[in-house]
Amino acid sequence: MDAMIILCVILFWFTIVLMLSHQAAYMKQKRLLLDHVSEVTYTDAFGKKKIKKSKRASIIQKTLKYADEFSDLGERINFFSENEDVAVWLKKSGNVFQLSVAQFQGLKIFLMVAGFFASVLGFIIGLPFSQYGLIFLPLAGYFTPIIIVRAQAKQRQENLRLDLPDFLDTISTSLQAGVSLNQALKEVIRFFDGPLREEFSRFLYEIDLGVPRETAYRNLLDRNDNREFQSLIKGLIQGERLGVPIATTFKIQADALRQIREEQIKELAAKASPKVTLVTTFVVAPVSILMIAGLMVLNLIFGENSIFNILN
């Protein structure tokens, strides 16, 4: 009977974990679907999203007023956040809140001080584990801006990579129809959102201001470190120097990106096989063995040919 109870407990927790994982996947897909519908149909949900974002921006701007007072101290206390590194992170993340390097350095010091006072207040009140908060809350306040900005930069470069093949195909089709590059970019970027639209909108703005085309290309390279995007811009620079048709350059880059993505998918699939084997070995197989052993034990105890019947 004890083996049956243990088996039931193991199966219960296994089904709970499985249910939670499926629930998380369902909620993620539902959120992505609602975001897609709101963007396509321009419903009120999209408007609410904009309002929520603007409120968040206003909170950040109010916080920055206090962070400016700590900017000088933050530039001196720059552990894991050198000024040069911060400038690169802000540039590659898109710098949504228009932070300067000094403001960023002051923000992390302000949050560290705020975390310290919050931990002291919790210690005075007597909250549980408040003694640990005296250490972890100031550290969390210091490192939170660094982690967020670096994560935003990484996510922005990933979004840039995902939209690039479709963007290149569309541009290539427009160029083959006889449209100039600038006009094709102006028309195509209207149908894209995110970092790709931001980067090429800024590129066109620089061209309109009289910035040389190669310099504008170099600025694109400085603001983004995505390998596929850099390959495209370098190909455009090389094609302009050698006189290669731009439409051909876009077509070649689109085919190359799709081939790279196919290879990446194959690589991920190859890496998934050992993980599946690991789960099967340490989760599925032990549970199956326990179920079979439990049935055998129950049959020996309560079955028609049980040990007790044989002894009697």
From TrEMBL:
Domain of life (superkingdom) = Bacteria
Say if the entry is tagged with keyword Iron: no
Membrane topology category = Multi-pass membrane protein
Boundaries of every Type II secretion system protein GspF domain copy: 167-292
Example of a GO cellular component annotation carried by this entry: plasma membrane
Pfam families given for it?
T2SSF
Mainly resides where?
membrane
Where are its TM segments located?
A: 6-26, 109-129, 135-153, 276-302
Location comes to: Cell membrane
Q: Does the keyword Transcription regulation apply?
A: no
Q: Which UniProt keywords apply?
A: Cell membrane, Membrane, Transmembrane, Transmembrane helix
PANTHER family in the record, alphabetically?
INTEGRAL MEMBRANE PROTEIN-RELATED, PILUS ASSEMBLE PROTEIN
Give the protein's recorded name. Type II secretion system F family protein
Q: Which organism is it from?
A: Siminovitchia acidinfaciens
